[in-house]
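pls design
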């Protein structure tokens, strides 16, 4: 019977252990159920707070869809118009530069022709006016030199007679 006592002791220990495990599992179950309720409550509270935000966001997106589409199409139209205007301005500026270049070349040709005509007129004036003046000046110098020479001969002859007379006296 001593073995019977050991068996009763082991049986009592196993029973106590099983009961203890059952109590621990029951406590875990109740704690898990309470935690699950709390998590569910937090989720419900979050859902209550997020639902109005999502609803508003959905309305904003629904209301803005047409506006965003309109804005994008307007931006595309503005870009197309701006590109067209830039091309027109480029053509106008290019045309103006070409015309200005032609006018500058034309003005340069006119000024060059005028300067050549003035230079030719100056050369002709020098030939027609200064040539005869130089010739007349040369003739006058020749006459003056002749007159001076004649005066010099008289002065010498008068000076020689005066010297002879002075010697005579």
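designed seq:
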């Amino acid at each position: 019977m001593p073995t019977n006592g050991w068996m009763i002791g082991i049986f009592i220990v196993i029973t106590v252990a099983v009961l203890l495990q059952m109590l621990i599992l029951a406590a875990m179950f109740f704690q898990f159920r309470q935690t699950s309720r709390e998590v569910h409550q937090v989720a419900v509270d979050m859902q209550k707070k997020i639902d109005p935000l999502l609803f508003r966001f959905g309305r904003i997106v629904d209301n803005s869809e047409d506006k965003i589409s309109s804005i994008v199409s307007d931006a595309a139209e503005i870009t197309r118009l701006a590109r067209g205007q830039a091309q027109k301005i480029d053509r106008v500026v290019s045309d103006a530069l070409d015309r200005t270049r032609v006018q500058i070349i034309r003005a340069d040709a006119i000024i060059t022709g005028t300067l050549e005509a003035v230079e030719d007129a100056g050369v002709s004036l020098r030939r027609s006016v200064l040539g005869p003046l130089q010739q007349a000046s040369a003739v006058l110098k020749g006459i003056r030199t002749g007159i001076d020479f004649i005066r010099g001969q008289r002065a010498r002859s008068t000076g020689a007679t005066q010297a002879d007379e002075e010697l005579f006296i």
